[in-house]
Structure formats: structure tokens, C-alpha cells
Automatic annotation (TrEMBL):
<dbReference type="InterPro" id="IPR036627">
    <property type="entry name" value="CobW-likC_sf"/>
</dbReference>
<keyword id="KW-0143">Chaperone</keyword>
<keyword id="KW-0547">Nucleotide-binding</keyword>
<dbReference type="InterPro" id="IPR011629">
    <property type="entry name" value="CobW-like_C"/>
</dbReference>
<keyword id="KW-0378">Hydrolase</keyword>
<dbReference type="GO" id="GO:0000166">
    <property type="term" value="F:nucleotide binding"/>
</dbReference>
<dbReference type="Pfam" id="PF07683">
    <property type="entry name" value="CobW_C"/>
</dbReference>
<dbReference type="InterPro" id="IPR015422">
    <property type="entry name" value="PyrdxlP-dep_Trfase_small"/>
</dbReference>
<comment type="similarity">
    <text>Belongs to the SIMIBI class G3E GTPase family. ZNG1 subfamily.</text>
</comment>
<feature type="domain" description="CobW C-terminal">
    <location>
        <begin position="290"/>
        <end position="381"/>
    </location>
</feature>
<dbReference type="GO" id="GO:0016787">
    <property type="term" value="F:hydrolase activity"/>
</dbReference>
<dbReference type="InterPro" id="IPR003495">
    <property type="entry name" value="CobW/HypB/UreG_nucleotide-bd"/>
</dbReference>
<dbReference type="InterPro" id="IPR027417">
    <property type="entry name" value="P-loop_NTPase"/>
</dbReference>
<dbReference type="Pfam" id="PF02492">
    <property type="entry name" value="cobW"/>
</dbReference>
<dbReference type="InterPro" id="IPR051316">
    <property type="entry name" value="Zinc-reg_GTPase_activator"/>
</dbReference>
<protein>
    <recommendedName>
        <fullName>CobW C-terminal domain-containing protein</fullName>
    </recommendedName>
</protein>
Amino acid sequence: MDGNEMSVALENRVFNRRSGMGGGRMGCTLITGFLGSGKTTLLRHLLDHRGDLRLAVLVNEFAASDVDSLLLDSARLNSAFNLSTVSLTHGCACCDVRGPFRESLLRIVDSKHNFDCLLIETSGLAKPEKLVAVLEEVGIHLDLTVAVVDAESLEKIIKLDIVKKQLEHVDLVLLNKCDLASLSQVADAEDILERVTGGAKVVRSQFCKVPLDLVVDTSKIEVLNLVNEECSVPPVLSHEALPKMAFRGDMHQNLSVHISYSELDNQPLVVDGRDNSKSQQYGIPFDVSFQSAAFESEDPLSLAFFQSKVLRRINSTGGLLRVKGILCFSEDRESQFVFQWSGLKRVEAVSGRPWDGARKSCLVLIGIDKSKLDDIIAQMLQSIDFVRRSPIENLLYKEYARTFCNKVTSDGRFKDPSLEKEPFVLFGLRGSPLRGIKEAHLNTALMRIVNGKGNIFLTATTSGQEYNLQILFDEGSDPDNAWNEIRLAAKAVISKLCKNFCPCRSELAIHVH
């Protein structure tokens, strides 16, 4: 082969990245699962570990606000390709597979970027069976259908028709949140999945941390080890408008706040083939209409008010299924907090990414009772008013903070606390990287346990390898009670994560007290 022929061959390899796929057809992984199971977490994990793969992503949200594009930071990723990001809201991609959704698939297929694979995340209320035919029509091959399942809640929701539909014809089930479930719950969930799916492969996971090639069929993709390409080829997320649901907006006489609602009508939940429209089981009526409320505000919220009022209302609201979004707090306006709520055992607010553009809170709530969603929205509005009429400076918090810092300093399991981000107190458990005990794992687990009890609200901040917890004291706080609860939770976390280490090998284990 002469020099020109070699150049042409190399060019073909570079620009026809799917040369190993028959006919050059793009492969697709369909990701489904009920609300709060971890689908977006899986997408973020795949995008963070994609190597040099070009991944196109379609995300659907049952809400009037496309909060998933904020959580996945799609505007920044798309800008690398000079692509615009439009909103995929008010609907379910699997309910309306013609029109805009089909057009977005065609644009991806015809894209000059020559993507290796398409990832589609359906809404948590989607029935994905209608997608397959449309994918075939536009020339996309469905490689895998992956269902993400919450290990702890599966037994409670498996009789819902919508959940059964999501588990039909799946190739792989990620049994997620195994860290929150007991061994018996995990075993029972595996038995249920084997029966419902007809023996599909089930993989246990925490935070959906699984190998890329488990979810993306890389065997059909010729992955090139080009120099520096690992960081030079970002993924792209495409969001397409699908106006399917009933929609109405409400400005609440505040130009800086926008509140909108979506509703999924005529969606009866059939249980075991019977129409139990007047019944209720597992806390969800069978004749339910799912409701979604989107709260957007250019004004910052008060974290002190949020943790003492809003969060407690969220935790006590029956029929609430999911809350997620980006929040701006007046106590730390420079940071955007990613908030996730999918039940008491999964409550978190993590900062670490700076704002890209104007600061704006955007929160989506999904439930089965609009009036209860309205109650939470009303609390959010009060949080904004609280910032306007209350000064951030509070001398009482400083006394509480010093008391708390002294207690943390006296416990060798914790790093030295810091007040460098007033009014927050920064603290956290010490990790042991040489023994495989990462600081992030310890402090994430500690935050889950403490926040799950609902008495204290810890946030977190990340920077590189640093993972610190934050606590904010207000007038209703008790630093002694807060420390006692955190201390006992730390004992449980360390005992669980360090149980395989002998005291002579792990300084963490000997500090359990």
C-alpha cells in the first residue's frame, strides 16, 4: 500500500468511526425506569466515562421545565459542536413518537458528527414499547434496552402497570441503590425481576456505576486510540419539544418567578389485569393522574428557610414521587446546588459547578396531587420573601458554628472543620485512599443517613478530589443535637465501609466509637 492509499485508509478509519457496524447503522441504548430510579445518574456516569466515543443523547422529562439539560450541563457540551439545545418537555417520547421526536432522530442520523451511539432516556412515566419501530424506520439499530430499578422500592411499585411495561423486553436491569436496601430486599428484588423480565440479566449497582461496555455495545464500534482524543470529543445532548401534556403557567404576580404545570391524563394504572379505579395500594391510587410542577426563579432562595420549612414539607407530603433541579441559595450565590429527592433515603444538595450564565433556580416536582405540589411551591415563594426581609448576617449562628467546630475537632475520624465559607461550616470524614476508602464515599454515605432522618440537612461541595459536607445553623438549630446525630451516623458509615479491614490495617476502623 503506497503513501496515498495509507492516508486514505487512515482518513476512512477516523471519519467512519462505525466501520465495524453493518451498513454503518448507528446503535442505540434505550434507558427506561420508574421515577427516581437513577436514569439521569446513569447518563452522567456514561458521559463521564465515554473515552473517545461520540455519544448523542436524547432526554425526555415529564415536566414543563427541561431540568435534565441543566443536570447534564447539555448547553456547554453542545456548544463544542455548535449545536443549539431545545427543550424536551411536556411529554413522553414514547407516547408521541411521530413528529418532532422522529425529526430529532433523523437529525442525529444525518449529523456530520458521525456519532458512535445514541442514548435515549425516557421519562419515568414512559411506556417504551412504541420506540422500536420508529428507531428502525430512521435507520437506528436498538442494541440494548436497559431498565434502571430502585432495589428498595421495587416490591412496592411492581404491581403498577407502568412499571411492568418498562420491564418488558429489557435486555439488562440495573438494580440500583443497593446501598440503601438490605440484602433480603436485594434478593427479593432479583427474584421479582427474574419472574417479570423472563430471565433478563440483572446487575447490582450503587449510583449506577457500571462499566461503559455493559450499557453501550462497544463491540460494534471501532474505538481509535488517537492521541489526546479522550478529552477532545465531548458528547452531545439533543432535547426536542414534544407538547403532549396539558400545560398552564402561573406568574404569581412576580416577574422573577415562573411556575408551570403539566398533567398526564387518562393514565389508569391497571394492577394484575384488573381495573381498580377506586382502590389504593402502596400509597398510589390506581386511577391516578400524574402531576408535575416546575418552579423557576431568578431570585435566590434562603437555605435556612429551605431546610427548616420547604424540605420538611417535601418530606411529609404524601404522593410526592420525585423532586430534582438546580437551586441558588442566598447564603452561597456563587455555587449552583444540584438537588435530588426520591424519598427520605435519597436527599442531597451538592455544589461544585460554577454558574454558566445567569443564576437561576429551577426545580421540578412530580406527584399525584396538584394541591400538595402547590403547597410546596408556596413554601418556595416564602423562601424568596425570607431573603428579602431577613439579613444573612446572624450572630447567633456564629456561636452555634464555633460550638460545632470544637466538637468536630475533638473527633479524630473527621478532618479539621473550616469556617472559610461562612455562614457554612465545612467538615467531613477522613478518607484512606491507600486502603480504597475514598473520602467522597464516606461523606456521601454520611449525608444520606443524616438527611434521611429529616432532622438535619447537610449539603456537600466538591472540588477535584475534595468532598466536604456543609452545615448551616439557624435560629432553630441545636449544635449539640446536630453533632450527636452526625457522630452516630459516622459510626454506622465507617462500620459498614470498613468492615473488611482489620484494626491493624485501617486507622478508620479503630476510631469507631
